[in-house]
Design a protein that fits this description.
Elements (H helix, E strand, L loop, with lengths): L1 H35 L2 E9 L2 E6 L5 E2 L1 H10 L6 H10 L3 E2 L4 E2 L3 E9 L4
Antiparallel strand pairs: 1-2, 1-6, 2-3, 4-6, 5-6
Length: 116
């Protein structure tokens, strides 16, 4: 009787070890892939509900008048939620917590770098 349990227990334990090893290997590969991905960063600055600046990935500052023109051309309502949705549709995500001070809210954005 005990011999039967031992014979059954050996394949069960081997399969558990095998599953554990392959799962660990896959999670390590996923982490390595994410660490090698290149990200680009941008920044949106709002004053009240108005977007007053966009710092592009190449660190150029795009001011309020250029942003207003961009929103008009792309039929985007100049509301904070609509603007954030538009940037999300372009692949941008909010990184961290928005920085708030007395007059402005600053959103740090990031996305996977696109190849040109």
């Amino acid at each position: 009787m005990k011999k039967g349990y031992v014979l059954l227990l050996i394949p069960v334990l081997l399969s558990i070890v095998l599953v554990g090893c392959t799962t660990t290997k896959k999670s390590i590969e996923i982490k390595q892939t994410r660490s090698t991905e290149k990200l680009e960063y941008g920044k949106l600055v709002f004053m009240g509900d108005e977007c007053v600046a966009w710092f592009s990935p190449d660190l150029n500052i795009i001011g309020r008048t250029d942003i207003a023109k961009y929103f008009t051309e792309n039929q985007i309502k100049p509301q904070e939620s609509e603007i954030l949705e538009h940037f999300a549709s372009l692949g941008w995500t909010i990184a961290g917590t928005p920085k708030k001070d007395k007059y402005t809210i600053e959103y740090q954005l990031e996305r996977l770098k696109t190849e040109n």
